[in-house]
Write a structure and sequence with these properties.
- The chain is mostly helical.
- The chain has 17 helices and three strands.
- Strands 1-2-3 form a three-stranded antiparallel β-sheet.
- Helix 3 packs antiparallel against helix 4.
- The longest helix has about 45 residues.
């Protein structure tokens, strides 16, 4: 009796030692354990006295360190806290950029509006209206469930394609500057190509997540993305608008580039996209002239290079601090499209190099926050969507600024938050709302409506798995039937199946009931005709 008690005491002591080592590993070795429970909220400031020691020598973490419930709770808590702080930073940065954009719009358009007989504040007040509408889109996108956003990927893309088709119809689209990119709705104009960029980013993120286990990369991933980009690109190029086509191609390439796509296939796809853009740039005479003026703008300053030459002069005249808001000669109409495509030159002229560096820093911070949001998102769809949104916002800003300062050909892409225009600003603010939503919910999970690919890359994986289970059950039933086992007693949940010859229990039947629920309501099915 005493030996039994000693054994039990040793086992209890061993369990207590293991538990003590586990708690010390989670809460930190040495010293008394903290009295706070894991479910309690950490003190203000986001810091606690809990410290998890790193494994010595860079070795692998123990099982308790990986799967401990306290460790998991703390990790999830801090991920949510970091995501909430990141979402606030994005919201503040977007607000500052939007307000600063209204001020720059006033500086770029006040003089020309007054010369044209309008109020100097006309375009600025109109931009305030677009900021308000975009703010509503930002709030809706930041509060909407990401699952609903994913479910709307295909309907949103279909609506965008339908609107792009309507632009091509005569009598519906509105022409301006030799292009027909807008649909008139009362006093406002809608540019469907801006909505198409956002819809395409959501569509590609959903497609990559649904087909992440596919092994046929070209057929199941590259071809659908390329086909949809081609459909949208053809309708956009009919407007024409090469810049938006480049952004759509960039969204698809970037999201596929960070996915499971092999390097060889991605490089081939990238080469094809570059070749297509090159051909589109050279096939039209005016684009070819713009390319020549990009090489030497001052040699074509009286013709196709006039706009770029004036842009460089405006940037150079700003010096360090600038000439002041609406004080430069460029505000008198010497720089064409100063309030739209070349508004970055106005910033450089009015605020100098300090203003331009501030804008570059703001977009760089937004890009870093977006990349961190994509990396911290647990959901694959949300992560890919954040990458696509970064291309839509920061990639668009890069192309605009590169064209304005003369390191790339000018493509006519507006500068986000600054260029005058309602459709672009509303879409950009909505994209920022989605990015804020992803940052605020790093542990959120979305599911596709229907996925044709399972973990083994098989199409219709769910139905294939059910078919395999059914076939396995039928084969097992046939084997039992072929062994001459009677299930008359076991089907009722009592007795034991017995071999018809020997009378002993069958090899696949346990005492006291049936092993499988297949024969719970009757005799086995005769499957000899199917499998013999």
């Amino acid at each position: 009796m005493s030996a039994t008690l000693d054994g039990m005491n040793k086992k209890s002591a061993k369990k207590a030692a293991v538990a003590d080592r586990y708690l010390k590993l989670v809460y930190g070795g040495g010293g008394p354990l903290p009295t706070r429970r894991p479910s309690e909220t950490p003190p203000a400031g986001g810091r606690t006295s809990v410290s998890v020691p790193k494994p010595a020598g860079g070795k692998k973490k123990s099982v308790a360190d990986k799967t401990g419930p306290l460790r998991s709770q703390q990790k999830d808590y801090y991920l949510r806290q970091i995501g909430a702080r990141r979402a606030k930073k994005i919201a503040v940065l977007v607000s500052v950029l939007s307000i600063f954009g209204v001020v720059i719009i006033f500086a770029a358009s006040a003089v020309t509006s007054a010369i044209g007989g309008r109020s100097p504040f006309s375009l600025a007040l109109r931009q305030v209206l677009w900021v308000f509408c975009g703010g509503v889109g930002y709030l809706l996108a930041s509060k909407m469930s990401l699952q609903k956003v994913r479910d709307l990927s295909k309907p949103l893309l279909a609506i965008s394609a339908a609107l792009l088709f309507l632009v091509l119809l005569p009598g519906i689209s509105k022409h301006s500057g030799g292009a027909s990119r807008w649909i008139g709705v009362g006093p406002f104009d809608i540019q469907p190509s801006e909505l198409a960029k956002l819809a395409f980013a959501v569509f590609v993120a959903d497609l990559i997540d649904r087909r992440k286990h596919s092994k046929n990369y070209v057929k199941d991933l590259v071809f659908p993305v390329g086909a949809m980009a081609a459909i949208l690109g053809i309708m956009i190029m009919r407007q024409p608008d090469l810049g938006t086509t480049i952004i759509i191609l960039g969204i698809g390439l970037m999201e596929m580039g960070v996915s499971h796509l092999p390097k060889k296939i991605f490089i081939t796809t990238l080469s094809v996209a570059i070749a297509v853009v090159t051909v589109l740039s050279l096939i039209e005479p005016y684009r070819f002239k713009r390319l020549l003026s990009f090489v030497n703008p001052f040699a074509h300053a009286s013709g196709s290079g006039y706009q770029l030459a004036q842009s460089m002069l405006a940037l150079g005249q700003g010096h360090i601090t600038g000439a002041g808001l609406a004080s430069s000669p460029m505000a008198w109409g010497l720089l064409p499209n100063a309030q739209t495509d070349f508004i970055f030159s106005v910033v450089g002229n009015d605020m100098g190099i300090l203003g331009t560096l501030a804008i570059l820093a703001a977009f760089s911070v937004l890009f870093i926050l977006g990349i961190k949001t994509a990396l911290s998102a647990k959901d694959i769809f949300s992560s890919y969507l954040a990458i696509g949104l970064m291309v839509l916002i920061c990639g668009q800003a890069f192309l605009n600024i590169a064209g304005v300062i003369g390191i790339m050909p000018e493509t006519g892409i507006p500068l986000p938050f600054f260029s005058s225009g309602g459709s672009s600003l509303i879409v950009v603010l909505t994209a920022c709302g989605l990015l804020t939503n992803i940052a605020r919910h790093p542990l959120g999970v979305t599911r596709p409506k229907r996925s044709r690919f399972g973990e083994n890359g098989t199409k219709y994986a769910y139905f294939a798995q059910q078919k395999r289970v059914s076939r396995r059950t039928e084969i097992t039933a046939y084997r039992r039937q072929n062994e001459n086992v009677s299930y008359a007693d076991s089907s009722a949940g009592r007795g034991e199946g017995r071999n018809a010859v020997s009378g002993y229990p069958g090899p696949n039947v346990r005492r006291g009931g049936n092993r499988s629920g297949v024969y719970e309501y009757g005799e086995p099915i005769d499957l000899r005709k199917r499998y013999l």
